[in-house]
Design a protein that fits this description.
Elements lengths: L2 H11 L14 E2 L10 H18 L1 E4 L2 H10 L2 E3 L2 E3 L4 H9 L4 E3 L8 E3 L3 E4 L7 E4 L2 E5 L2 H13 L21 H12 L11 H15 L1 H6 L4 E6 L4 E3 H12 L3 E9 L8 H22 L5 E4 L1 E5 L6 E2 L3 H17 L3 E3 L11 H16 L4 E2 L5 E2 L4 E3 H18 L6 H4 L1 H7 L9 H6 L15 H6 L5 H15 L7 H16 L7
Parallel strand pairs: 2-11, 7-17, 8-19, 10-12, 12-13, 12-14, 13-16, 16-17
Antiparallel strand pairs: 1-7, 2-4, 3-4, 5-6, 8-9, 14-15, 18-19
Length: 510
């Protein structure tokens, strides 16, 4: 495409595709209903099986005496580090005080998110030790990469949440890197964030840094940060995860509890059995938040993956996890708590056709299951081991399409377009009519990654594929990035907190 053609296209679309994207909504409000996959009888059988697991098998709390004490006081049967629960006990604790919907504040009030109800919050991927861009091979992530992805997330109109450990800055000691990551979230973005969960004291540091930004009174009365933990499936919580859970919950902050089940490895190979296990583990985690502090926000998370039984590798974009999302979404609604799922998941190493298929087949069921908080919505490659720059841009563009899809279809006077029919009449095109001119900028989603031009335009523009276009987009986004404003004294206090914490301990690499 020539520069003159580019200028005409920008004039038609009303925006420059190389410029920073416009601000999007704080969160997505779905106007389409969640898909009800399973009938009542099947749901009841799964719930009864979860109760069977909790009463007969129980849950192990490894190296967490405080959790065992709380369960014993609540009336559970504690035998060593194994806890068993009377039928219905855990559900009753959850439904007594866990909120069905809650707000996570952002330091920019316009970006605070509402979690639950008809709302969906998109967040980037989480936990990758590697990064990849088309300009270089897969490599270990650095703090520069982490900051880049915070900036890209902040600049995206389609991601509502800054996320947490978007990628691991592996050059920083394990016991200190959480300080740099939370600092980046709080200074380079003003979207909501997740804090550290790799040790209770690191969870506390995350909360304390938010106290600097929001103030003690606001933190004491509101959710300003959340933690995302995994149960050590099958049927175990270790002291690191449950300790982080108790730290966030004691402060009234949000907790996402995620059973991490690879079918056939950390749970049964059958979908129904794995879903019953996920329900049992998640209910216990949510109930523990309520024993610590009734009313503390908690989210029912799921990471239910199929696997290759020939190699042992997890697989993504497969039909079984899609079914799992639909059913677990129903179970979460029956439990009356918000629901978290994964998003654009793939086993592919690069953003190729496999990545597109698997990510699409993961994302759509997650959205249609009624998910309230979608982690891994952008950037995921290689089963979560790698965060991809181009993949991130392709995924976040796809999330923009999901915004349009989830809004459904209006049937007001403008949407039904009788003025256009009256103006044009039979046999006449609608390209220049007043209705088209009034709606052309917003009528259809305008992808920043897809190329819909003619072959000749594509050829003359350099024959660029989606990877190349995404590569240009992330570089342009970083080039045009401008940080959100922050009070100078607040910024200094945050930096001082990080520096003092780092000075107080020796480096640890485990």
């Amino acid at each position: 495409m020539t520069e003159r053609q580019n200028k005409r296209r920008r004039a038609r679309s009303g925006r420059d595709p190389s410029a920073a994207p416009v601000a999007g909504p704080a969160y997505l409000t779905r106007m389409i209903p969640p898909y009800e996959f399973m009938e009542e009888e099947g749901l009841v059988r799964i719930e009864e099986t979860a109760d069977d697991i909790l009463s007969e098998i129980g849950i192990r709390f490894y190296e967490d005496e405080e959790a065992l004490r709380l369960w014993k006081e609540a009336g559970a049967t504690v035998d060593g580090d194994r806890v068993r629960f009377d039928r219905g006990m855990v559900r009753a604790i959850v439904q007594k005080s866990a909120p069905e919907e809650f707000t996570q504040l952002s330091r920019n009030p316009a970006r605070s998110v509402q979690i639950g109800g008809r709302n969906t919050v998109f967040a980037p991927s989480y936990g990758s030790p590697f990064v990849r861009g088309m300009d270089e091979r897969r490599r270990y992530a650095t703090i520069e990469d982490f900051r880049n992805f915070v900036k890209l997330t902040y600049s995206s109109p389609w991601l509502h949440h800054s996320g947490g450990t978007i990628c691991e800055p592996v050059e920083i000691p394990v016991n200190k890197r959480h300080l740099d990551m939370v600092h980046a979230h709080l200074t380079l973005s003003d979207k909501p964030l997740l804090g550290s969960v790799t040790a209770p004291e690191r969870a506390q540091d995350s909360i304390d840094m938010c106290r600097i930004v929001f103030g003690d009174d606001v933190v004491d009365k509101n959710c300003v940060i959340m933690g995302n933990i995994n149960a050590n499936s099958p049927l175990t919580f270790d002291g690191v995860m449950s300790g982080a859970l108790r730290t966030y919950s004691a402060a009234g902050q949000g907790m996402i509890i995620v059973p991490f089940i690879l079918g056939g490895a950390m749970g049964p190979v059958t979908n129904a059995g794995a879903i019953a296990q996920a329900l049992a583990e998640a209910m216990v985690g949510i109930a523990l938040t309520q024993l610590v502090r009734p009313g503390a926000p908690a989210i029912f998370g799921t990471f239910l993956s199929s696997m290759s039984l020939r190699s042992g590798a997890p697989t993504f974009g497969m039909p079984e996890p899609a079914i799992g999302n639909y059913v677990i979404g129903q179970l979460a609604r029956r439990l009356k708590v918000p629901f978290r799922s994964g998003g654009s998941l793939t086993s592919s190493k690069v953003p190729d056709a496999q990545a597109a298929q698997e990510s699409s087949d993961s994302l759509m069921p997650a959205l249609m299951s009624g998910t309230h908080y979608m982690l891994h919505a952008a950037g995921w490659l290689e089963g979560g081991l790698t965060m991809g720059y181009e993949k991130f841009m392709i995924d976040q563009d796809h999330l923009g399409m999901m915004h349009v899809f989830a809004k459904g279809m209006e049937t007001d006077e403008n949407a039904l377009a009788m003025d256009a029919f009256r103006e044009c009449g039979p046999g006449q095109h609608f390209l220049g009519c007043a209705h088209t001119m009034a709606n052309y900028q917003t009528a259809f989603f305008d992808s920043e990654i897809s190329d819909s031009n003619s072959y000749e335009q594509w050829r003359d523009g350099g024959r660029k594929d989606a990877m190349q276009r995404a590569n240009e987009r992330w570089k342009a986004s970083l080039q045009s990035y401008e940080p959100p404003a922050m009070d100078e004294g607040m910024a200094e206090a945050l930096s001082e907190f990080v520096a003092k914490k780092k000075e107080s301990m020796a480096d640890a690499w485990y």
